[in-house]
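Review form for a predicted model. The reviewer records the input and the model, then writes brief findings.
Reviewer: anonymous (R2)
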Amino acid sequence: MGDHGSNALPRSQDRARRRFLNGWGGAAVRAVVVALAGGALAETVVFAAYLAGRRTASVLDVARAGGLLFAWFHHTDLLFRYRTDTAAGSFTLGFAPMLGTAVVGGLLVWAGRGVARRAGDARAWACALQGAKVAPPYAAVSLLAAFGSKLPAGALVAVPGAARIAPGFVSVRPSVVGGVLWPLALAVAFGCAGGLSAAPRERSAETASPVRGALAGAWWMLAAGLALAFAGLLVLAAVTPHATAAYFRAAFVRGAARGSVLVGLNLLVVPNLAAWVLAAAMGGCVGGGFGVAGSHACLLSLSKLPSGSALATLAGGLDHARSGPPGALGSPAPAGYLAFLLVPAVAVLLGGWIAAHRAETATRVDGAGVGALAGILFAVLVGGVFVLASVVLSTTGARGAPGASFWFGPRMVTGVALAAIWGVVGGAAGGFLFPSRPPPVSAGSTPSPPV
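Model under review:
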């Protein structure tokens, strides 16, 4: 009896070790499939723009530009080098068209779920680790794609308008460090989420997990917040038909093909716009700033709208980054814009209810606790989305001379703090106000009277 008990633990440890060591081949295959699908999306977008344009660039350079867009799906910095008769330097531009990021993220969730299911481990944390196996091979493939995506000097000369943006010979390539770290971080996050979703749900009162319920609630808070923010933009488009008509006239002024491509390119940044609106709807601010502690300006909030010359003023402010904040860049928002407060309110109430429902809490107090935990996790997710939704531009002069650093997006610290307040208060209210179904009673146990 004693020998049997002493051998049981080593055997279970050996099975767990084999589960972890096995499956790397399947994870690598799935990572390659995800990278190919994401790359195909990027190439489709770039070649559509090429076919709708003047077609002056070579097909090889267009394919390389697709690789640059794929790198941007992960917020990888692109390094631009320029040289003219009088000056030389470089600048990096970090940006993520978040619709592409969402597509890649969904595919990574699929990949992580598949790896975890093949492993056959029922423990939630082990499933999450199994899903994360897709991250190293995905980062390796992304790095290879980055090395093959360099546009050589002079490749941008054929691009209309490029001479005005960066005159002279220009080369563009993804950052090597960012080309590894950003895909790795995103693949770990989405792969773990996919692996966790593959874990079997426990159905008894003793094993129901409040953490898994809180994770589900946090995800729904974020998804509902972004969806409602975009719905608010659609409402604004409907109530301002003149501005909407002007947008489509400008988009299709050079023909249906170019207009369709331009609208498609704009769709890539719809999640970015939704994240900015969500930040403003929670009471935060979306704007631009110079450096870490430099000047900054608020363009979008519940009380301010960007003026027509806001971006031009910010661009001009690059020459005066150290002379103080830019001038007034916004105009007062109508009182009706306070209706955007419904966006975070509805999102966190819904997420709190889902958290309590998934955790199968027995009392309203327990539901409030799980909803509050979902609110904390919601703030973490919001921080990640705000990072992806931000634009970061850094410039350097000749021979590494100091340059300017500019960012545009939600104010990070304030935005995350507001998300935590909304999430905790609203999530707790959602979990308390909307009671969940009582959890099933385990076999052989006696149900306790309701509290």
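Findings: Residues 18-200 form one domain.
Further findings: Residues 20 and 185 are 20 Å apart (CA to CA).
Recommendation: see findings above.
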